[in-house]
Write a structure and sequence with these properties.
It is built from 22 helices and two strands.
Length: 501
């Protein structure tokens, strides 16, 4: 009875049956929906994979291997056909991307491979397609771009660098070949600049400029040549290079005062300034005022002063109206306690004055010759001698003679002071010769300066005598007004003292 009742109850449909019935009810619509959903997932996954590929292609360019037949890099260029030489060239470049810290067989093989690459490029057989350009830049970046260890030597703080021991990179024999290969690559006549600038980009140039801080002078010399070639060939990078060099100098002058490649960078800009078009852009004038002139401030200016002077003179040669700006900058950074720097400044000042026109000279002659008068009175005999020798320059003597009414009164006192007080016999002789020269230039003006100086001396002597008499009266009055007072058996002076002078 119970079984009959249970058999009449409706049975529960299984999930599979339900899904089957639902699929049967909806027909093919559900099937297409599932297929569409799966295709969307597939597109999303493929798009993510493509994004990963794009990101990886930035770090490791896909063009290095796309469409390039793999060739054993150990084969010589002589053993392959002309068609395969390009693929072999790329394979050898990829082989040289590995950097070995220790001496091993692979390092020797890499060295030999680099020599083969240099010979292949110098022969003119190479064809720099986009894959080969990308492989070349990657190989150079892998071998050259590195972080230098911190500088612990005391000389790095900016002292005299002429007598210190030079530091040479132990891996220079390897780096030299890479630099030669990079230079030949940039100088290659058939190089497609439109493609090359995509790989020699801003990031590549920044890392290249960082290498100028190398302590090895041979490396800095190679970098100087390479950067100059890049500046000449890639016009699109010129503003960026100037900006980066300015930032390096800013950091050197105002923050660290530590950099090994300032002289080399200034050598590059010496030739760059020669190519500036006239009239000069505001950017170039700002470079002179805010970059070059502050370079006179660091203690280590002696290591690059010759290159700095050349750059400054090139600006004046381009635009003579900048001479007053340069002289004002020199006076601003004029050393006070460093006699060696002062000698360098006087030498640079003479060269600047040689290129200065009269109108610009008259703008700065008063503060300029006040500073020269201080140099004439310097107790460092070399500074005093060098300041006296300025007057032997024909151009300087000519502009001084034309403005003698202003200049002679500024320096005459210094000459008289030297005659009376200077300790060095050579300086005394130069002072006497200079006084004779000025007397021949304008004897009446010299006599007037002498009379004026005597009047000032008499007034100062009268003022000194008056001060002496006043102090004597004060002492006498103080002595007369002292009253002895007995305090507990001791005799002390009275503190009350009224003096009227």
């Amino acid at each position: 009875m119970l079984k009959q009742i249970l058999s009449k109850l409706p049975k529960k449909v299984p999930k599979s049956d339900t899904s089957d019935s639902a699929q049967g009810d909806s027909g093919s619509a559900t099937t297409f929906a599932n297929v569409f959903q799966c295709s969307n997932v597939g597109v999303a996954i493929s798009s993510k994979l493509n994004a990963v590929k794009r990101v990886s292609s930035v770090v490791f360019p896909a063009s290095l291997s796309a469409g390039v037949e793999a060739v054993d890099p150990h084969i010589s260029f002589k053993d392959v056909s002309n068609i395969q030489k390009q693929n072999l060239f790329i394979s050898k470049l990829n082989l040289c991307c590995t950097v070995y810290d220790k001496n091993c067989t692979e390092k020797d093989v890499k060295h030999q491979t680099l020599v083969e690459l240099v010979d292949f490029v110098s022969s003119g057989s190479a064809k720099f397609t986009e894959p080969s350009i990308a492989a070349m830049c990657k190989m150079c970046a892998s071998n050259l771009f590195r972080v230098f260890p911190p500088k612990f030597r005391p000389s790095a703080t900016g002292g005299e660098t002429e007598d210190e021991e030079l530091m040479f990179d132990p891996s220079w024999s390897h780096l030299k070949i890479v630099y030669d290969l990079l230079l030949q690559f940039i100088n290659y006549n058939a190089l497609d600049l439109k493609v090359a600038k995509l790989h020699i980009d801003n990031a590549f140039i920044v890392r290249l400029l960082d290498l100028f801080d190398s302590e090895d002078p041979r490396e800095r010399d190679c970098l100087k040549t390479i950067l100059h070639r890049i500046y000449g060939k890639f016009m699109v990078h010129r503003p960026f290079i100037r900006k980066c060099v300015s930032n390096i100098i800013y950091r050197f002058v105002f923050e660290t005062e530590r950099h090994n490649g300032i002289a080399e960078l200034l050598e590059i800009f010496g030739s760059v300034i020669c190519g500036f078009a006239l009239p000069l852009k505001e950017e170039h004038t700002i470079f002179l005022c805010r970059v070059l002139m502050p370079l006179h401030k660091p203690k280590s200016v002696g290591s690059y002063h010759q290159q700095l002077t050349y750059c400054v003179l090139q600006f004046i040669d381009k635009d003579p109206t900048l001479a007053s700006t340069v002289i004002t900058g020199l006076l601003k950074y004029w050393p006070v306690t460093n006699s060696q720097k002062e000698l360098m400044f006087i030498s640079e000042l003479e060269e600047v004055l040689d290129a200065t026109i009269m109108t610009e000279f008259q703008k700065v002659m008063v503060p300029l010759f006040r500073r020269i008068a201080c140099c004439l009175n310097s107790y460092h005999y070399q500074v005093a001698e060098r300041a006296h020798l300025l007057w032997n320059n024909e151009h300087i003597f000519d502009v001084v003679s034309q403005n003698r009414e202003v200049i002679l009164p500024l320096v005459f006192t210094a000459l008289v002071h030297n005659t009376q007080n200077h300790w060095n016999r050579a300086v005394l002789n130069q002072t006497e010769n200079m006084r004779k020269m000025l007397s021949q230039m304008d004897e009446e003006l010299v006599l007037a300066c002498q009379l004026k100086l005597e009047e000032e001396d008499s007034r100062s002597s009268a003022a000194a005598e008056q001060r002496r008499v006043t102090w004597e009266r004060l002492e006498a009055a103080a002595t007369a007004n002292i009253q002895p007072i007995a305090v507990a058996g001791d005799v002390v002076a009275s503190p009350a003292c009224s003096v009227a002078c």
